[in-house]
Design goal:
By secondary structure, the protein is of the alpha/beta class. Helix content is 39%, strand content 17%. A 7-stranded mixed beta sheet has the order 3-2-1-4-5-10-11, sandwiched between helices. The chain has a 4-stranded parallel beta sheet with strand order 7-8-6-9, with helices on both faces. The longest helix has 22 residues. It starts with a strand and ends with a helix. The structure holds 6-O-phosphono-beta-D-fructofuranose (F6P). The site of 6-O-phosphono-beta-D-fructofuranose has 12 residues, from loops.
Length: 342
């Protein structure tokens, strides 16, 4: 019986378990065996697996995170790991691999395909920054969490007549910031795609207060940076894919806004709360559709491809396309957000 392996890599997000469930259910229906590889690429390097059957995936649809575990292991980083991946792929008796991940995990999948492994990809990330798919699952849940937080910040900001800066995730793309900001009615939204003009931010806030408002909500993406500054990071250390840990821009910004405007300002960093918890219906359905399609690609031996959402259709695109460039916020959407500034 042919065997499919499945792994989830990179930062977890809501919707991974619906994908795992869909892959297992569809694979079993099609007469395949399925092997769960634990903790992303680390499990392939270390030959660490778990069995997956209809009972293992029962009840996981509403659960956040991933029952397989995850890691940020990059098998192309450490000498010898690539060979271990290839050897373990054989030892596990795999005929195909479904890799579920973002830019980094799928970047490895794309290279492995070029190195001869039969891999298909499934795009996940709360950042929604993958090219070649309109949406990744995980984004909708993170967005809704961020929106709810902004709603909550409104009531306390209004009661205390304060400015509150909400720092959201998203790495180098401003999707969570701009969409949560629009949905939550933020008064200023700052994204990595457009350098922060502090004079302009303070002008907008002051004008708003001049027309009688006594509070403001500023949403800032963790990757946003000042016109003349650099990215604010939590530490200098790079992970196996060369990323630094972002975070801290909210604190800097709040201090500067308070100093310049004289209005009492607080900061709230939403952090990993955005990544945790149960997936929204949209993410459950998208994850399920992606999982079923991934197995169809395996059945059709269409390796080196990634499942993707185009409009309302599930399609497949070359993995190399998906990881070629980051998908960032377009001017049209930011222009809509700007209509509501101040
Ligand atoms: O890529 C998803 C993401 O949540 C980013 O938005 C964020 O910058 C990063 O992961 C945080 O990573 P970690 O979980 O390693 O702190």
């Amino acid at each position: 019986m042919a065997r499919i392996g499945i792994l989830t890599g990179g930062g977890d997000c809501p919707g991974l378990n619906p994908v795992i469930r869909a892959v297992v259910r569809k694979a079993l229906l099609a007469g395949y065996q399925i092997v769960g590889i634990k903790n992303g690429w680390k499990g392939l390097v270390q030959n660490d697996t778990m069995s997956l059957d209809i009972n293992t995936v029962s009840g996981i649809l509403p659960k956040g995170g991933t029952i397989l575990g995850t890691s940020r292991t990059n098998p192309y980083k450490q000498e010898g790991d690539l060979q271990k991946v290839k050897d373990n792929f054989k030892k596990m008796g795999l005929d195909a691999l479904v890799a579920v991940g973002g830019e980094d995990t799928l970047g490895v999948a794309s290279k492995l395909f070029k190195d001869g492994l039969p891999v298909v990809g499934v795009p996940k990330t709360i950042d929604n920054d993958l090219s070649a798919t309109d949406y990744t699952f995980g984004f909708d849940t993170a967005l809704n969490v961020a929106m709810e937080c902004i709603d909550r910040l409104h009531t306390t900001a209004e009661s205390h007549h304060r400015i509150i800066v909400a720092e959201v995730m998203g790495r180098h793309a401003g999707w969570i910031a701009v969409e949560a900001g629009i949905a939550g009615g933020a008064d200023v939204i700052l994204i990595p795609e457009i350098p922060i003009d502090l004079d302009e931010v303070c002008k907008i806030i002051k004008q708003r207060h001049e027309r009688g408002k006594t509070f403001s909500i500023v949403v800032v993406a963790e990757g946003a940076q000042f016109k003349d500054g650099s990215m604010v990071t939590q530490e200098q250390k790079l992970d196996a894919f060369g990323h630094v840990r972002l975070g801290g821009i909210g604190e800097n910004l709040a201090g500067l806004i308070e100093k310049r405007t004289g209005f009492e300002t607080r900061v709230s960093v939403l952090g990993h709360i955005q990544r945790g918890g149960s997936p929204t219906a949209f993410d459950r359905v998208l994850g399920t559709r992606f999982g079923v399609k991934a197995v169809e690609l395996v059945i059709g031996k269409k390796f080196g491809q990634m499942v993707a959402l185009s409009g309302n259709k599930i399609i497949d695109v070359p993995l190399s396309e998906a990881v070629k460039a980051l998908k960032t916020v377009d001017d049209d959407l930011y222009d809509i957000a700007k209509v509501f500034f101040g």
